[in-house]
Write a structure and sequence with these properties.
alpha+beta; Aminopeptidase; 13-stranded mixed β-sheet; 13 strands; 30% strand
């Protein structure tokens, strides 16, 4: 049963303006109201989307820099936002939302196109976002703005396990060793996805105390690394899950070893499970997780702007999370 709104506020929207940390409570309000309304219109009347952890917002705002944009009404209240991120030439948007009281007036189009232009101006060669595949309204909306449906992203979880943590932990290194790991991680990523660069996410994850970067190294060369967050995603919740944001590996065997290390790290943080999001072209990684007993939790549809689509690496594995 869908819920239909019978009234709207005035459609005036001023922006974009840069999002500041002081705007986090307002962002949370728009985020919660917009996504709760989306579920309600999909027939999920009882679902209430909670506020996100302010620490996660602070990370997203710092990562996006000028790509964190908001729009305000005539009273100065935030009514829409778009957090556009760039990792080298890889650009993506999320989260982005318009308060339901202000939908239907073209604000959403402005929000998306502002993010697209910001990413183009900064040299992004990939521009995309993720949406719920069952929500035809969203798929149609983004398609009308030039986006094309692509691969599926599947979220899977594994329980934390006991074991020996032999992966290098970025947080345990001195400044010189950290600089070396950053450069080596950039070289590894660039070898498989030219121009992609996750050094900023590694540094910000450490600086904000959100989690860890695990590294597998042999003979002075990185075989694989993963950036993960262990702070709760939802405001006021306890730590339950370690979320992998990025995972890059030379081979499926390296990825499998790193997954084991992530499960050990998860147990060591007292979280219950590790969540990793796998794009559908990485069949060997996906099958390996299923064989381990991983549970499928969620699916998202990746959509890319026409002419700015993702390529498929000829070798190596690059799992990139387009959500915070």
């Amino acid at each position: 049963m869908a819920f239909a709104r019978t009234w709207r506020h005035a459609s005036a929207a001023e922006g974009p303006a840069r999002v500041m940390e002081a705007d986090i409570p307002a962002l949370n309000t728009v985020f919660s109201e917009a996504f709760t309304d989306r579920y309600r219109r999909d027939g999920l009347i009882g679902v209430r989307v909670p506020h996100l952890n302010p620490a996660v917002w602070r990370f997203a705002i710092a990562d996006a820099e000028g790509g964190a944009m908001c729009w305000r009404n005539s009273r100065g209240s935030i009514i829409a936002f778009n957090i556009a991120h760039r990792s080298g030439v890889e650009g993506w948007m999320g989260p982005l939302a318009v308060h339901p009281d202000h939908q239907g007036h073209g604000i959403g189009k402005s929000v998306v196109l502002a993010g697209v232009e910001w990413l183009k101006e900064r040299g992004a060669r990939v521009i995309g976002l993720e949406t719920m595949p069952r929500t035809m309204d969203n798929v149609g909306f983004y398609s009308a703005l030039g986006f094309t449906p692509g691969r599926l992203t599947v979220t899977l979880t594994l329980e934390g396990v006991r074991g020996r943590q032999h992966a290098i932990l970025y947080s345990a290194l001195d400044d010189t060793a950290k600089s070396e790991i950053l450069e080596k991680s950039a070289d590894l990523t660039d070898a498989f996805a030219a121009g992609y660069d996750y050094r900023r996410e590694i540094s910000l994850t450490g600086a904000h105390g959100l989690g860890e970067t695990l590294v597998l190294e042999s003979g002075g060369q990185i075989r694989a690394f993963a950036i993960c967050h262990s702070v709760p995603l939802v405001q006021g919740r306890i730590r339950e899950e370690v979320r992998v944001l990025k995972l890059v590996a030379r081979t499926a065997a390296d990825a499998d070893e790193l997954i084991t290390q992530l499960c050990i790290y998860t147990r060591n943080t007292t979280a219950k499970r590790m969540a990793v999001r796998v794009q559908s072209e990485y069949d060997e990684v996906y099958r390996g997780l299923i064989q381990r007993g991983a549970r499928v939790r969620w699916t998202d549809l990746r959509m890319s702007l026409s002419g700015f689509g993702e390529g498929t690496p000829e070798s190596g594995i690059v799992l990139s999370n387009w959500e915070i």
